[in-house]
Automatic annotation (TrEMBL), chain A:
Cofactor(s) annotated in UniProt: FAD
Membership in a protein family: Belongs to the FAD-dependent oxidoreductase 2 family. FRD/SDH subfamily.
GO molecular function: electron transfer activity; flavin adenine dinucleotide binding; steroid dehydrogenase activity, acting on the CH-CH group of donors; succinate dehydrogenase (quinone) activity
PANTHER family per record: SUCCINATE DEHYDROGENASE 2 FLAVOPROTEIN SUBUNIT, SUCCINATE DEHYDROGENASE FLAVOPROTEIN SUBUNIT
Native source species: Nocardioides eburneiflavus
Compartment(s) of residence: Cell membrane
Domain FAD-dependent oxidoreductase 2 FAD-binding as annotated: residue spans: 67-482
EC number of the protein: 1.3.5.1
Catalytic reactions on record: a quinone + succinate = fumarate + a quinol
Membrane topology: Peripheral membrane protein
Cellular component annotations (GO), alphabetically ordered: plasma membrane
Name listed for the protein in its UniProt record: succinate dehydrogenase
Lineage of the organism: Bacteria, Bacillati, Actinomycetota, Actinomycetes, Propionibacteriales
From TrEMBL, chain B:
Protein known as: Fumarate reductase iron-sulfur subunit
Stretches assigned to the 2Fe-2S ferredoxin-type domain: 1-102
First and last residue of the signal peptide: none
InterPro entries reported for this sequence: 2Fe-2S_ferredoxin-like_sf (IPR036010), 2Fe-2S_ferredoxin-type (IPR001041), 2Fe2S_fd_BS (IPR006058), 4Fe4S_Fe-S-bd (IPR017896), 4Fe4S_Fe_S_CS (IPR017900), Beta-grasp_dom_sf (IPR012675), Helical_ferredxn (IPR009051), SDH/FRD_Iron-Sulfur (IPR050573)
PROSITE patterns in the cross-refs: 2FE2S_FER_1, 2FE2S_FER_2, 4FE4S_FER_1, 4FE4S_FER_2
Enzyme superclass (EC): oxidoreductase
Family: Belongs to the succinate dehydrogenase/fumarate reductase iron-sulfur protein family.
Length: 678, 247
């Protein structure tokens, strides 16, 4: 295989019609990328083999080794608790006032595990298979298998911590099923599973704080990664620059290894189901220091969110998709019925479009399919609810049949706060009128590239949870993000990181090391810049505008023309931002506008890369739907011959276009098939 | 609708604060209370006045980050979090007073933002089950009666927002603490550390400067998660048992 494939060569080997390289001119081709850490063993033995081969660190030496973990969500808190307990010295960072508030707390539906408690045909292999298929064959096989393999331990661990999962009368754990699968493998704690799992991990973390192995830095935001030459010309991650958000102090923290568990970047769209503070800064700063960003364009649009109600809106609220187990989705058959009271529309005039188009999965088709189907019926003019910008963007999620079957009490037991939450936000009682839902940005499958050990392209920088790219491919099945976060933190990273740490002790780095000073000074300069522009527009107004561009052109459907337009728009908006933003207040105080300015600045650069990645991927797969690549009946059309690769992007400098490295995806345990849920 | 807002502004922990009055027009009843503050902040930014600092993150009523005294009520007039309070709960022309949580154990950081890290320190003193990663028994090896699991869940839903403390005339965190003690105490896994948990958590609570509980019940009335008052009885009961056991 040649080291680099030129754009011209790539286009010759293609089998698509017309001009193949839509992204020509927007990137430079780079050398192929391979994961060298997954052992060459049959898939079911890889993880056991890797665990055995990973070197050990003896307990006395662990106390001398230090680890920085950015993020206290499921991925970060579980890692900090486990590594602290193992005896390493851990520093844990989060931007909220307590680790317990990480965005993982908001997850509603549940967590998957191949326990096969229902004897309905589930197994590690089936969970693996469903996840790879659900991700449209764009995830890495070895990672996904491992995820399925350790999933069963997660449930054991959480139960032992006191996570109050739903139980059956006999005292055993209950399950339900989730979109995209036909077995019941999702464990849940009513509609608040993420909360209960995070509280479990948070408590384990606080236990280590009391034991003195973990130090927590709350209201601290990582603003830069510190890399240091190890003497051989290799830059290694050795610390972070963080701002104490209360005092404004810019601090440097050094360690032997850095872990980013900083979550996803869905907030690049401004409106999303993510918490207000979710951002890409930690990952993006690492990207600029040499960590590749993989598949950034893969965004998951969640089908069951409360529709937008007006321009003041700051975020969108998800209604757990577990609701699709009992709720039936429909719109009127006739446009003329769209403004009627839904209860007055007779059965024969309703179009249960998911049940009609996808009879075997019905309302439980995966998220990408359910979302696009909703968009299509609304684009046809059959949406319901208030008109926003001239279109009704909503479909009904109807519980009337389920209420008849289970009673209001049964429904409340199963879905708990979700019905209340809906009523509180919309002012409508879903026991009386069907809920209205519409797709919204929810989760990102893209993230920093990692190998099987979860190590990025910067040695000593590990990335876990939603911040990495590896397990979900182009689409994530419900209830598998929580599973990944906890798998990474409790069961994977602690083994792989010790192999890295076994090389220690590492060179001592002091605060006045030139690389540390340089990183700290660059952060101060950025802060000074934002505070000195003194322009006319608020940070939020820029963020909102960026979000509109992303949703319009890099949202549910992408086209070559749209993406090129978006890139131009983003570039000029970013220019304007640096010249015209208005950030009041000082550097040495709690300053929320300043915090947002730094995050939005990074979103601009990420947004541009997302569009370039989407432009390059001239196929439709999972959450990435390219208008140019669809079947006759409008389904996503993949091109495995050309795009069965991970797109890993390298930062080439402020004024250069990014470099594209491809990691070919090979499947040995699973046959690549066109996905069908019909 | 049009509103007059009286809002507490305080540059930092050591400076004095004061109420400031702002006018806000065209507030939609569909806005959440925090979205209303967002709009006010945009207006302030435009006028060259520093926006008002307040905490929020999930805006879904689950992270516990938000929390304001609104017209003297923790989280405002409804039983919910501030982020889930909507402007339809207010009237056109109303004057609304907004202050930070009131409690010595929650010092003000700036404007409406307070420091609630005392809650984390209480949890550090036993608000967990000691289980090392990887050593957990098979989940089904210990069945948990459904009703116990349900009751544990009902109190485990505490979001650590601090409204109970802010509402309590004594500034007690007993509801918060009782919720955790009851959650873990309802489960078989929580039994081995039951005695030491309550003793150590209560000691930390008092050390942080939270007040004692005198059964007023303002906490449970303000709690967005409707944590019932009997978790405090449970706490007291566990405390008595632990003393009997020689703690
Ligand atoms: C509403 C909603 C419902 C969901 N429901 C489900 C579900 O039912 N099942 C499921 O499997 N998944 C669900 N998900 C997805 C899942 O919750 C997330 O993908 C997952 O929790 C991410 O966990 P994480 O640990 O990677 O990151 P997060 O939980 O997002 O944690 C990120 C951490 O990083 C910190 N951080 C970030 N940047 C910085 C910085 N620069 N400096 C310092 N700290 C920083 C934050 O403070 C935080 O502690 C849901 C998501 C949403 C939005
Ligand atoms: S008990 Fe209620 S009011 Fe107190 S912290 Fe918990 S959720 Fe908030
Ligand atoms: S912002 Fe999370 S509970 Fe209000």
């Amino acid at each position: 295989m040649p080291d680099t494939v030129s754009a011209a060569e790539a286009s010759v080997s293609g089998s698509l019609d017309g001009d193949y390289d839509d992204a020509a001119g927007y990137y430079t081709p780079g050398a192929p990328l391979v994961d060298t850490k997954a052992p060459d063993a049959p898939i079911a033995e890889r993880w056991q083999t890797r665990k055995f081969e990973a070197r050990l660190v003896n307990p006395a030496n662990r106390r001398k080794l230090s680890i920085i973990i950015v993020g206290t969500g499921l991925a970060g808190a579980s890692a900090a608790a486990t590594l602290g307990e193992a005896g390493y010295r851990v520093k844990s960072f989060c931007y909220q006032d307590s680790p317990r508030r990480a965005h993982s707390i908001a997850a509603q539906g549940g967590i998957n595990a191949a326990k096969n408690y229902k004897e309905d045909g589930d197994s590690v292999h089936r969970l693996f298979y469903d996840t790879v298929k659900g991700g449209d064959y764009r995830s890495r096989e070895s990672n996904v298998y491992r995820l399925a393999e350790v999933s069963t331990n997660i449930i054991d661990q959480c139960v032992a911590q006191g996570v109050p999962f739903a139980r059956e009368y006999g005292g055993l754990l209950d399950n339900r099923s989730f979109g995209g699968v036909q077995v019941s493998r999702t464990f849940y704690a009513r509609g608040q599973t993420g909360q209960q799992l995070l509280i479990g991990a948070y408590q384990a973390l606080e236990r280590q704080v009391a034991a003195g192995t973990v130090e927590t830095y709350t209201r601290h935001e990582m603003l830069e990664l510190i890399t240091v030459d190890d003497g051989t010309g290799q830059e290694r991650a050795r610390g972070i620059v963080a701002r104490d958000m209360v005092t404004g102090e810019v601090q440097t923290h050094v360690a032997d290894v850095v872990v980013l568990a900083s979550g996803g970047y869905g907030n690049v769209f401004y409106l999303s189901t993510n918490a207000m503070g979710c951002n890409v800064t930690a990952a993006w700063r690492a990207h600029r220091k040499g960590a590749y960003m993989a598949n950034p364009c893969y965004t998951q649009i969640h089908p069951t969110c409360i529709p937008v109600s007006g321009s003041h809106q700051s975020k969108l609220t998800l209604m757990s998709e577990s609701l699709r187990n009992d709720g039936r989705i429909w719109v009127p058959k006739n446009q003329a019925d769209c403004d009627k009271d839904p209860r007055d529309i007779p059965e024969e005039d309703r179009d249960y479009y998911l049940e009609r188009i996808y009879p075997s999965f019905g309302n439980l088709v995966p998220r990408d399919i359910a979302s696009r189907a909703a968009k299509n019926v609304c684009d046809e003019g059959r949406g319901v609810g208030p008109e926003v910008d001239g279109v009704r963007r909503g479909v009904y999620l109807d519980f009337s049949a389920a209420i008849e079957r289970l009673g209001e009490k049964g429904i409340t037991e199963k879905y708990d706060n979700l019905f209340d939450m809906y009523e509180r936000i919309t002012g409508e009682n879903p026991f009386e009128v069907p809920m209205r839902i519409y797709p919204a940005v929810h989760y990102v499958m893209g993230g920093l590239w990692v190998d099987y050990d979860l190590q990025s392209t910067i040695p000593g920088l590990f990335v876990t949870g939603e911040a990495n790219f590896s397990d979900h491919g182009a689409n994530r099945l419900g209830a598998s993000a929580l599973m990944q976060g906890l798998a990474d933190g409790y069961f994977v990273l602690p083994h792989t990181i010790r192999d890295y740490l076994a090389d220690g002790p590492f060179e001592e780095i002091t605060e006045d090391h030139p690389a540390v000073v340089e990183a700290r000074e660059s952060v101060k300069a950025r802060i000074d810049h934002f505070l000195s522009v003194n322009g006319t527009r608020s940070v939020d107004s820029y963020h909102r505008e960026l979000g509109n561009i992303m949703w319009e052109y890099c949202g549910m459907e992408r086209t070559e023309t749209g993406l090129k337009k978006a890139i131009d728009l983003i570039r000029s908006l970013k220019d304007d931002f640096y010249r015209n933003v208005k950030v009041l207040g000082g550097a040495e105080t709690l300053n929320q506008s300043l915090e947002k300015a730094g995050r939005v600045a990074d979103f601009f650069e990420l947004g541009e890369l997302m569009c370039i990645d989407a432009l390059n991927r001239r196929e439709s797969c999972g959450g990435h739907f390219r208008g140019e690549s669809q079947t006759e009946d409008g389904e996503a059309l993949r091109h495995d011959d050309e795009f069965a690769y991970v797109a890993a992007w390298e930062w080439a400098g402020e004024d250069s276009i990014p470099v594209l490295h491809k990691e070919d995806l090979t499947y040995t345990a699973i046959e690549m098939k066109q996905r069908s849920y019909k | 609708m049009n509103l007059t807002l009286k809002i507490w502004r305080q540059p930092d922990a050591s400076s004095a604060g004061a109420m400031h009055t702002y006018q806000l027009a065209d507030v939609s009843p569909d806005m959440s209370f925090l979205e209303m503050l967002d709009v006010l902040n945009e207006q302030l930014n435009e006028q060259g006045e520093e926006p008002i600092a307040f905490d929020s993150d999930c805006r879904e009523g689950i992270c516990g980050m938000c929390g304001l005294m609104i017209n003297g009520d923790a989280h405002g007039p409804e039983v919910t979090t501030t982020c889930q309070l909507h402007m339809r709960s207010f009237k056109n022309g109303e004057t609304i007073t907004v202050e930070p949580w009131r409690s010595d154990a929650f010092p003000v950081i700036k404007d409406l933002v307070v420091d609630r890290s005392a809650f984390d320190r209480i949890i550090q003193q036993g608000g967990y089950i000691s289980v090392n990663t990887g050593s957990a028994p098979e989940a089904h090896s210990v069945p948990v009666p459904r009703d116990d699991a349900l009751r544990a869940f009902n109190v485990a839903t505490c979001i650590g927002c601090g409204a109970c403390v802010a509402a309590c005339p004594n500034g007690s965190a007993s509801l918060f603490m009782g919720a955790k003690i009851t959650h873990l105490g309802e489960l078989p896994q929580g039994q081995p550390e039951r005695d030491s948990r309550v003793v150590n958590m209560v000691a930390q609570h008092d050390h942080e400067g939270f007040g004692g509980c005198t059964n007023i019940g303002a906490c449970t009335a303000a709690c967005p998660k409707e944590i019932p008052l009997d978790v405090i009885s449970q706490l007291n009961k566990d405390l008595r048992t632990s003393i009997k056991h020689g703690h």
